[in-house]
Design a protein that fits this description.
By secondary structure, the protein is mostly helical. It is built from 11 helices and no strands. Helix 2 runs parallel beside helix 5.
């Protein structure tokens, strides 16, 4: 359940920060009259995200009658969730420093257009996080049918994110967001590796990939599946005591290189070399009058 709590916390905090930036900009710009449009866009995004999550679950449980079709559907959604998680983590790492300025610029343009543009801006800012959350949650919570624990953990993570966002907006709480997104990003990479491993297993059960009975190792004597720590590892990162060869290759092949790329220190771009203008050359080589004459068109 910690994995789904982490998903709700991470995605919820991203969405909350975006909304906080938009609200703060409107308040500081004396445009409180546009706040209802922002909340309307946020509300619509939340409703559509919930409907998207329901549609995924309904498709898996009601529209697909054969077990092979359900396994294939779950495998495809798992791979899609891994792609979204990976993209989201690296995008947030790259855009964290500039997201506030970009959002303020887009909102300024939206204010010039009208109310619908403001609502659309808030809607687009939140809907991406909502759809990602629904897809990732479905993939992470597979195998927990009839158990409300993962859903409660997700809601708990979202509620925690909202509380943190409100406290940050009110300046009552200051946290190092860079470190927060780095640590949660690293944990989510391990969660995504587990989701990918689960997807490979579903592909094997659907008959798309071979090797369902080819085990990489079997340590059930050491890691008893009935113990609490085995259940914790399986629930968080899908680490199981008897995985197949392809599952193990997928888990390691994703987790190791992606973690190394994510935790690698970002390279700073070298500062551009100072350029010398005509005026500066004139000022450096002659008098101020000569510098002015160098940039003034000659009269006929």
């Amino acid at each position: 359940m910690f994995a789904t709590y982490l998903i709700g916390l991470r995605e919820g905090l991203e969405a909350t920060l975006v909304v906080s930036i938009l609200v703060a900009f409107l308040v500081k710009s004396q445009r409180r009259d546009r706040l209802p449009q922002v909340w309307a866009g946020v509300g619509l995004a939340v409703v559509l995200s919930v409907l998207f999550g329901w549609l995924i679950e309904y498709t898996s449980t009601s529209l697909l009658s054969r077990s092979e079709d359900r396994e294939l559907f779950e495998a495809i959604t798992s791979v899609a969730a891994v792609v979204f998680v990976t993209w989201m983590i690296f995008w947030m790492r790259r855009a964290a420093r500039t997201i506030a300025g970009e959002l303020r610029g887009k909102l300024t343009d939206a204010l010039a257009v009208g109310s619908f543009a403001v609502a659309g801006m808030a809607f687009l800012a939140v809907i991406r996080e909502g759809l990602e959350t629904a897809l990732i949650f479905y993939s992470a919570a597979q195998g927990a049918a009839g158990d409300s624990g993962p859903l409660l953990a997700l809601v708990g993570g979202i509620v925690t994110a909202v509380v943190l966002g409100v406290l940050l907006y009110a300046s009552a709480l200051r946290i190092n967001l860079g470190k927060f997104f780095t640590w949660t990003g690293a944990l989510l990479i391990l969660v995504a590796a587990g989701i990918l491993k689960y997807g490979v297993h579903d592909f094997q059960e659907a008959g798309v990939l071979p090797g369902l009975n080819d085990l990489a190792f079997d340590i059930t004597g050491v890691l008893d599946p009935t113990t609490w720590y085995a259940a914790l590892l399986a629930g968080m990162f899908n680490v199981t005591p008897a995985p197949t060869v392809l599952e193990t290759i997928a888990w390691i092949g994703y987790a190791v290189p992606v973690l190394l790329l994510f935790l690698r220190p970002a390279r700073r771009k070298p500062a551009p070399a100072p350029t010398t203008t005509v005026t500066e050359r004139g000022a450096a080589t002659g008098t101020e009058a000569e510098a002015e004459a160098a940039t003034t068109p000659q009269r006929a």
